[in-house]
Amino acid sequence: AWSLPGHVKFNAALKTGAGHGFKPVAVSGDDIAFLQYTGGPTGVSKGATLLHRNVLSNVAQNSLWVEDAYTVKPKPTHQNFICALPLYHIFALTVNALMGMQQGAQNVLIPNPRDIPGFVKELQKYPAHIFPGL
Predict the structure, then answer these.
(1) Which CATH architecture has domain 21-125?
(2) CA distance 85 to 89
(3) Reported pTM
(4) Which among 1, 52, 60, 121 is most buried, taking Cβ atoms within 10 Å?
């Protein structure tokens, strides 16, 4: 076992936080939303600065692209987004996590997409409406 000096247990942190009021912070499109870490073409880790404007624009672009599909077939009232990609990947983060929330969809996370029988079992339970992939 290991110990971290000065640590705070999760439940204690929740209890402490519950005693504080929520103070909204002013955020603009030019403020940093994420530092997206990537290996890039060289394999050396780098932090790419993503602004709120960048991230929201990407979500809007993807949403508009998907909307074209609903001109052929009506948009379902309930959507399942299948996420077989790691959410630390920017594509999965914007399309599955953020666009999924924007669309009010259910995000079905596939923890091990290499487990084909398990993957198929999940697809039988949750028919895919949106299934992003690389």
Answers:
(1) 3-Layer(aba) Sandwich (3.40)
(2) 7
(3) 0.72
(4) 52
